[in-house]
């Protein structure tokens, strides 16, 4: 049996351009370093919070800051990257390079799970830019998107918009191809939502979840299972691997902010991956990838995963 291709070997034929290939190698190196830091963080004095809050008003964990610094360090070494947008930076960071690309990232998503040793991740999006003024682009314009999942193994999941590939990090620090052309099953009977927010939900979300809970006795006509890790990367990875739907809808508590999750570095790259894998990604009223951002930290409702389930809740929103 031949050994799996390394990420670099795979990129030789799969990357649309040498520059994009180099950008993915840069991001992968940052993710590999973050994964290494996470492995021993509790005994390295890196657990717990800082005394800072980010622009989202959330207390930063030490590892949020460390992960952000690792991204910045790697990105500075790639002359093609001019701008970094990060969940942990109030403003877009202008690198001294004149390159034609911007990266938007959440360096460490789901960091509230760190203290209990549950999978977290890094999410990234790659955009082409002429100048700093160009960074507010709809997700459909992304050149690449993906995430690293730091779980029992470290996975890198990547799309250039037409297919999805999964790589696993070896002990030698090299990512190797695990799965290519991943497809999300169109049908599924597994949903992921923070059900403790039921009282804040709109009518469509309540109706959708009520139907699922009713199982074979309700309008959906089948029994469902529910999983909510509270770590988007972990929930989306499960959905990519075996189907399902993830929902963080607009609700009465998140209404004023426009939603819970961020468009440019959480929703858009995940929507790119899910659509490239044959699934659907919606705000409830249309494709996430068509939403024009009005700010780098804009929030958005997120409903994505198996096509048939996304269509069922979109139909409930139309009622
Ligand atoms: P973060 O970027 O501050 O980590 O927040 C995003 C996370 C997602 O990973 C996860 O899906 C969601 O927040 C969980 O929210 P909740 O705590 O409301 O269940
Ligand atoms: Mg996040």
Q: Would you give an account of this structure?
A:
With 319 residues, the chain is of the alpha+beta class. It folds into 2 domains: 7-179, Fructose-1,6-Bisphosphatase, subunit A, domain 1 (Fructose-1,6-Bisphosphatase, Chain A, domain 1, 2-Layer Sandwich), CATH 3.30.540; 190-318, D-Maltodextrin-Binding Protein, domain 2 (3-Layer(aba) Sandwich), CATH 3.40.190. The protein is built from 7 helices and 17 strands. It has helices at residues 7-14, 18-40, 62-76, 203-214, 232-242, 263-276, 307-318; strands at residues 49-53, 59-61, 81-86, 93-94, 101-109, 120-128, 144-150, 154-159, 164-169, 175-179, 190-192, 225-226, 245-248, 261-262, 280-282, 299-300, 302-305. The strands form 4 sheets. An 8-stranded mixed β-sheet has the order 4-3-5-6-7-8-9-10, with helices on both faces. The relative contact order is 0.14. The mean pLDDT is 95.
């Amino acid at each position: 049996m031949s050994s799996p291709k390394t990420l670099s070997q795979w990129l030789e034929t799969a990357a649309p351009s040498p520059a994009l290939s180099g950008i993915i190698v840069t991001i992968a190196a940052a993710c590999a370093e973050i994964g290494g830091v996470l492995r021993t963080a509790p005994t390295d004095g890196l657990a717990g919070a800082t005394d800072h809050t980010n622009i989202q008003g959330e207390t930063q964990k030490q590892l949020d800051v460390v992960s952000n610094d690792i991204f910045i360090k790697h990105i500075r070494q790639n002359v093609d990257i001019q701008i970094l947008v990060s969940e942990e930076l109030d403003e877009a960071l202008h690198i001294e390079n004149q390159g034609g690309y911007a990266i938007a990232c959440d360096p460490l998503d789901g960091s509230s799970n760190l203290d209990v040793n549950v999978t977290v991740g890094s999410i990234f999006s790659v955009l082409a830019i002429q100048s700093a003024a160009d960074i507010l682009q709809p997700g459909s314009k992304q050149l690449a998107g993906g995430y690293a999942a730091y779980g029992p193994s470290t996975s890198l999941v990547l799309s250039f918009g037409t297919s999805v590939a999964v790589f696993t990090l070896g002990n030698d620090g090299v990512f190797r191809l695990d799965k290519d052309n991943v497809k999300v099953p169109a049908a599924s009977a597994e949903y992921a939502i923070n059900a403790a927010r039921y009282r804040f939900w709109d009518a469509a979300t309540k109706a959708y979840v009520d139907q699922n809970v009713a199982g074979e006795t309700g309008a959906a006509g089948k029994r469902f299972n529910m999983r909510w890790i509270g770590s988007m990367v972990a929930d989306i990875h499960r959905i990519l691997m075996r189907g399902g739907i993830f929902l963080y809808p607009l609700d009465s508590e998140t209404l004023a902010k426009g939603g819970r999750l961020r468009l440019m570095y959480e929703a858009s790259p995940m929507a790119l991956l899910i659509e490239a894998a044959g699934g659907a990604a919606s705000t409830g009223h249309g494709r996430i990838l068509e939403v024009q951002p009005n700010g780098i930290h804009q929030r958005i409702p997120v409903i994505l995963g198996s096509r048939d389930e996304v269509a069922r809740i979109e139909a409930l929103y139309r009622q």
